[in-house]
Amino acid sequence: MNNNIFAVLSLHAELWLMMVILVVLLADLFMGSLRKCWLHPLVCVLMAAQVIINLTPDTRMLFGGMYINTPFMSIVKSVLSAGTLLVFLQSDRWLSRPDTHFKRGEFYVLTLCTLLGMFFMLTAGHFLLFYLGLELASIPMACIVALDKYRHDSAEAGAKFILSSMFSSAFLLYGLSFLYGSCGTLYMADVSGLLSDSAMAKFALALFIAGIAFKMSLVPFHLWTADVYQGAPTTVTAYLSVISKGAAAVALAGILYHVFGAYVSDWGYALSALVMLTITVGNLMALLQNDMKRFMAFSSISQAGYLLLGVMTNSPQGIASVVFYLIIYIVANIGVFSVIGALEEENGGNALQREDYRGLYRTNPRLAFFMTLCLFSLAGIPPFAGFFSKFFIFSAAAGAGWWITVFVALVNTVVSLYYYLMVVKAMYIETPDEGKSPLPAFRVGGTSRICMWLCFAGVCVLGLLSVIYEGLFHWATGFCAG
After folding, report:
1. Nearest residue to 11 (alpha-carbon basis) of 109, 129, 187, 128
2. Which of 481, 391, 377 lies closest to 424, judged by CA?
3. Cα separation of 476 and 390, whole Å?
4. Rounded to whole angstroms, how far apart are CA atoms 313 and 321?
5. Whose CA is closest to 307, among 271, 264, 270?
6. Is residue 350 helix, strand or coil?
7. Within 10 Å of residue 20's Cβ, how many Cβ atoms?
8. Are the CB atoms for 320 and 79 separated by under 8 Å?
9. CB 379 within 8 A of CB 413
């Protein structure tokens, strides 16, 4: 009995997160008028502690092998928790509005529930636990997408998200049923040794990849993305674009590497086609967008293709490049969304078009400069961190022999630079249309400013570290191999 209790207590990351959810729920119920002032700092402090607690290097196999935690997964959990903390920091002003302040507790609890589901996805040693984690991450997400249901088509976005999640979950669960029929078990360690060269097992793999492709917004499973990103609150869009996408990418990489490694000759070419389609379609559609959130939606579709490029390498170097790319993508993308959200709140909560950014440098030079750095990092321009994240992804894919896929990704990087520069051009060179004035000068306050400074440090410092410490990525590759 004592051993069982000790085993449960060793789930320190998940238990702490569940405790945070419980504390936030009780605080939201009983703090009364103090909730408006103290709930946000309380959540941010607890999440900062979560980041540190996740870093505990621990290897555990619990519940008969259904739960398997490794030091590598602890690092990934810390990355996702840190990204969630950044999202919470930037949400302060949005949650302080008269029409949203009473939803503050619901937003925190639902978001943390999705994060808990991602933790179970990452540490699952059994496909049913993986599926339960996926659903725990998806269903509360539909609620926070529809949180602003009276503004900006948020209710419609929530409906589209839950419908697409239903289809993707059905694909995945249907694939797992075929996998069980082929192998007689859903334990991942056992499946890897029982896989046969049968049509049923390969069909199960195809359905599994299709289900995850919906979650990652991979072409042609991406059609829900732009509408959901546009209709959801900007803070929720930021969370959806990086945290959930990153968790799905790392989980997919681990399962393909450890479970379906014998089928690499089959799923490698399928993923290569998905990568080329996703990056190309995402970039071409981004060129046509004027609404900034739809613009970032297609940008995130393209970025998902780059993440998948690291997944398809089927090597420790590829998995390390995925995690490094995810870290850089989190700070750069959340940095862009923090600017978009701040400008929207200053504009009465109304969505902004790209032409509304014309002349932003004249009225808000610091915001324009910060957004430019983040966009340059997303585009992969040196010496910012995004350049090194793309370099490591390309190196891993080229080392695995995927030269044509890397070439297509490189060409698309030039295309992405063009549409990111369209936003920079609007801020620095273009002038507002006749009869219009640029967005007024204002000062970003509260924790949103802290979020921007942290993202700024991430974009610049991580780029410098990649230059100074040449062996950093090689150490990460060895860490993933171990």
Report:
1. 129
2. 377
3. 16
4. 10
5. 271
6. coil
7. 23
8. no
9. yes
DSSP letter for each residue of 86-154: HHHHHTHHHHTSTTTGGGHHHHHHHHHHHHHHHHHHHHBSBHHHHHHHHHHHHHHHHHHHTTTTTSTTH
Residue 220: asked if its preceding bond is cis (omega within 30°), the reply is yes
Please spell the DSSP secondary structure of 419-481, one letter per residue. Answer: HHHHHHHHHHT--PPTT--PPPP----HHHHHHHHHHHHHHHHHHHHHHH-TTHHHHHHHHHH
Question: Cis link prior to 383 (omega < 30° from 0)?
Answer: yes
Mean pLDDT of the region 20-49 = 82
388/386 Cα distance (integer angstroms) = 5
Cα–Cα dist 428/412, whole Å: 24
Look at the chain and count its residues.
482
Per-residue tokens: 424: 């920079």
Q: What percent of the chain lies above the pLDDT cut of 90?
A: 7
pLDDT of residue 471: 53
Q: How far is CA 310 from CA 47, 65, 169, 223, 238, in A?
A: 29, 27, 24, 23, 22
Q: Tally Cβ neighbours within 10 Å of residue 218.
A: 29
Q: Which of 264, 273, 305 is nearest to 404 (CA)?
A: 273
Q: What is the mean pLDDT of residues 87-109?
A: 83
User: Sorting pLDDT into bands at 50, 70 and 90, what band is 2?
Assistant: very low
Tell which residue, 473, 287, 298, has the closest CA to residue 394. Answer: 473
381: amino acid identity, one letter: I
Q: What is the DSSP string of 287-331?
A: HT--BHHHHHHHHHHHHHHHHHHHHTT-SHHHHHHHHHHHHHHHH
The structure tokens listed for 461 are 């410092």
- For the segment 40-62, what is each residue's pLDDT rounded down to a tens digit? 888 888 888 888 887 776 677 77
Cα separation of 330 and 332, whole Å? 6
Q: Would you say 312 and 397 are in contact if contact means Cβ atoms under 8 Å apart?
A: yes
For residue 59, what are the CA distances in angstroms to 248, 276, 388? 21, 36, 30
Single-letter residue type at 366: R
Find all residues with CB under 8 Å of 43, minimum gap 6, and list them. 20, 24, 88, 108
